[in-house]
Design goal:
With 508 residues, this protein is mostly helical. 50% of the residues lie in helices and 5% in strands. Mean pLDDT is 93; it is low at 1-25.
Length: 508
């Protein structure tokens, strides 16, 4: 009797399970999720995330401090300023890049790669992927690349670290192939692309301009290969006009991710509302090296970049600017602290300010170097002056009132030494890169490591971890030693000790 009862109950359960299978899929579907990602939406998110990646920690506290654009009297936040080891700051970019922008870009590629009609989306995503990876490899050296962001597609959860040499050569190949494959007759991302509104002709110029940047990055390690890629980039057509500049557009809300991270992240964490220069959370100021350089050459860009708080407003006049010295721990009084320059909150720190990724100022200055090397049949002097003029005009992205229409007085007072040595020319060209690319501290840091210009005097703060030399890379996150230890060990064996002083491949 007991046996029959159990069988009867089991039959009822089985029958009820069978009866509900008609609705099983519907019941177990999350109404707030989608099974098929929208590549347009995901690409928008990849652009935002790629540029929002720990701006304050990476660009200001680390790169900006090391390159003496920024300074602070504090030790905890002075990792870059004083060459100290702070795992929270040096690991931040690595830890956030992979689960957000890199993964999102890979999702876009996987969604469109088998649809010939969406080839433009595929190739723009490939270009964006190259941009993202060059940023992270320039900071750390060898990184997960060929197997990265593949957990969903190939179930690789512990990706190998590729050598930077392999990564760079593959990035250049990707840029070349993607640019060549762009087709103006096919659809693109349209308004989902916050940089170019899906304009494939402009993305092609962006790709070749990034190729120019990466090609020049190889001059120390392989000059012949550098020349090959620089020549190819120039032939392909780089950004030369303001209309083609790669500029990320932002709005002041309604959400934080719509705001420019340069201003939002920095003002949230240091230059807070109501501080007016007297009580910044991390003590951040513009560095004496940077301000002195701008003042000594009467550079009008100083009034766009900097301001000194006087009450509740910033005075942007050249004469009142004062930079804070790097490598000090002496805390100024609040009154004295307010006398030092900070980024201008009406321009570079404005929440809805555009953000330049690559502009004609940068490309013309790089072309000037190519001409000085004999790789480009043009006048390095003319290209240098075009780069400076472009930088002056590009101040207008913050508003028409900030445009500096005429660079002639500045160029006359600070002439290019066309008859000088190659190194003298490099110093002038890359000092201008140092000025023109302000706020893109990652690129300034990478370019300085390659060229050594402008010449910076390192600090020697007690307890620094580099023996008083400017760091050459970021260390890997400590989490990688426990999560992906085998692959990380291979990278360290190949690249060198995981130290701030270990030079990455193109820096050797």
């Amino acid at each position: 009797m007991k046996k029959i009862t159990l069988l009867y109950i089991a039959g009822l359960l089985l029958g009820s399970m069978t009866a509900c299978t008609d609705d099983f899929e519907e019941i177990n579907t999350n109404p707030n999720s989608v099974e098929k990602p929208d590549p347009n939406f995901v690409f928008s998110k990849a652009q935002l995330d790629g540029l929002n990646n720990n701006y304050f920690a990476t660009n200001i506290l680390e790169c900006g401090g090391m390159l003496q654009h920024y300074a602070t009297y504090k030790e905890a936040s002075g990792a870059g300023d004083k060459y100290l080891s702070n795992e929270v700051y040096y690991s931040a970019y690595f830890n956030q890049a992979y689960p957000t922008a890199l993964n999102e870009t890979e999702v876009v590629i996987n969604e469109v790669k088998n649809n010939p009609n969406e080839s433009n989306k595929l190739n723009i995503a490939r270009i964006w992927k190259a941009y993202l990876y060059h940023r992270i490899t320039d900071l750390y050296g060898d990184i997960p690349y060929s197997e990265a962001a593949k957990a969903n597609s190939t179930q690789i959860f512990l990706p190998k670290y590729d050598s930077q040499e392999f990564i760079y050569k593959d990035l250049l190949k990707e840029l070349d192939e993607a640019a060549a494959a762009l087709d103006p007759a096919k659809p693109s991302f349209g308004k989902s692309d916050f940089i170019y509104d899906g304009d494939v002709a402009k993305w092609k110029k962006f790709s070749y301009s990034l190729m120019l940047r990466l090609g020049l990055r190889l001059t120390k390690v392989d000059a012949a290969l550098a020349q090959t890629w620089v020549t190819k980039a120039i032939a392909g057509g780089v950004i030369l006009n303001t209309a083609d500049n790669a500029i990320m557009k932002y709005t002041d809300g309604p959400n934080d991710f719509n705001r420019n991270p340069v201003g939002f992240d920095s003002r949230k964490q240091d230059f807070t509302a109501g501080s007016y220069g007297t009580k910044n959370v991390e003590g951040g100021k513009l560095a004496k090296t940077f301000i002195d350089l701008l003042q000594s050459t009467a550079d009008p860009r100083i009034s766009v970049y900097a301001g000194v708080w006087q009450g509740t407003t910033q005075n942007t006049a050249l004469a009142v600017q004062k930079g804070f010295p790097n490598g000090t721990k002496i805390a100024p009084t609040p009154t004295e602290q307010a006398t030092y320059s900070e980024p201008n909150q009406s321009t570079v720190f404005k929440y809805d300010a555009p953000l330049v990724l690559i502009s004609n100022a940068e490309t013309n200055l790089y072309l000037a170097e190519a001409a000085a090397r004999g790789w480009y049949a043009a006048s390095d002097k003319d290209l240098y002056e075009k780069g400076v003029q472009a930088s002056f005009l590009n101040m207008g992205i913050y508003g028409v009132a900030y445009t500096i229409p005429d660079a002639t007085p500045y160029l006359t007072a600070n002439p290019y030494n066309a008859a000088g040595s190659f190194e003298a020319k490099m110093n002038q060209i890359h000092t201008q890169v140092y000025i023109a690319l302000f706020v893109d501290e990652q690129e300034v840091y990478a370019n300085w490591r390659r060229t050594g210009y402008p010449v910076l005097v390192p600090v020697n703060f007690p307890g620094n971890v580099t023996n008083g030399t400017i760091p050459r890379r970021f260390k890997y996150p400590t989490s990688e030693y426990s999560v992906n230890s085998t692959n990380l060990a291979e990278a360290v064996k190949r690249q060198g000790q995981d130290l701030f002083t270990t030079k990455i491949w193109w820096d050797k």
